[in-house]
Fold each of these.
Amino acid sequence: MARPERLPQLFSPSLRPPGVGDGEALSSLQALDADTFAFCCTSGRLGLVDTRQKWAPSETAGPGGGRWCAEVRGEAPGPGPSIAGLRSDGRLCLLDPRDLCRPVSARQCPVSTPSPDPELLRVTWAPGLDHCLAVSGFDGTVQVHDVTSWDGTQGRTDPVFTHRGHVFLDGDGAGTAPLVTTHTWHPRKPRTLLSAASDASLHVWDWVDLRTPC
């Protein structure tokens, strides 16, 4: 497994982010185009950087508590929340890149316990659907959420679909349920995902929202 990168190692000394210690690890690093990228620290600190400019990122300090990961939505249809941040206790925040200091909305995903391995936390936007994302890393499931109706009200969010295939055990069901280690969306099939678990299982599966299509 690759060693986690740390912020100061990504830049020359003249570009080192102010206030960032040598021990601040990255949980997410994403190239947005040839000149800009986004980062998320395990502390929850988010930033957008243009490499053509002197270090002056648009960023926000971490909210504190738990460990975080994040993803920026590719090819967003317009202004609005395009960054999703996920905390190890199931907290899911949507942010507008024009104002990273104030989440547009924040909801609690239905997880029974915090992630047993925060390094496996993953939140991903559906590339072929406008307002859907998936989260994993808490147990043997992958949750799909539709954020169309989300607003600033903080509360609980229920997934429109939960993939439980990795939870099914062989034999009499004895033993420890596997943990989903990663998932990803199929690039050309909007409702198809792939997921892998700690028992070496790999699933390719479709999902259907029986209430309100994304």
Amino acid sequence: MHTIRPYRINTLFLSDLHLGSSSCHAESINQLLCSIDCKTIYLVGDIVDFWAIKRRGVGLVESHVEVIKTLLIKARQGTKIHYVTGNHDDGLRSLLKAYPFEHGLTNINLCNQCNFISKSGKKYLVLHGDQFDNQLKWDMLSKSMVALNIALMMSYQH
């Protein structure tokens, strides 16, 4: 039987896997992870959906646990993993405040944000983005109020 060798890449970015939620496609995620060999993986927020787990009152199903096992195996084999927290895994943010993981686990860096440096040397900030949710809500409310004000002013002119 011929085994397929993993596709080699430098960096993989994954976000919003929502392990623990019923909408997660864990089998496909695990298939992807098993089909690649990469130096670095950035898990960019909402990887484990603690909100869904709490809401459902059930732990992770086996296929979701398999994704975590695959990631841990990759880390043990030398893949550097940056786990950037998101709003659905905000329990990890509390953990980071209490116990900063300055040195991380073996090849796993748990953080709220980190940097990515491209082959060309450009530096990128990697974060989930939910930090801006409140600002976006206020911006949308502000824009809605301006639009409403304009509409009211125009209706009074006629």
Amino acid sequence: MNSGSLDMLHYSRYQDIFSITYRINFKFLALQIFINENRMLLRITVDDCHELFYFLIRDCDLHALSAKHI
């Protein structure tokens, strides 16, 4: 991490005061990464209609198996 722009924030008692004419623009690039830990989206074929009902309606979960229990 390059924290060169934030070095001035470490010296709270530093008394060199100057005016900022326009603005300070820090571009903190934060990406929200989607991690799908339940990868098996109905990969196991559902043989019976009542099993499809359990997947879709009762559990509200389209994943046949979660990655934790493989």
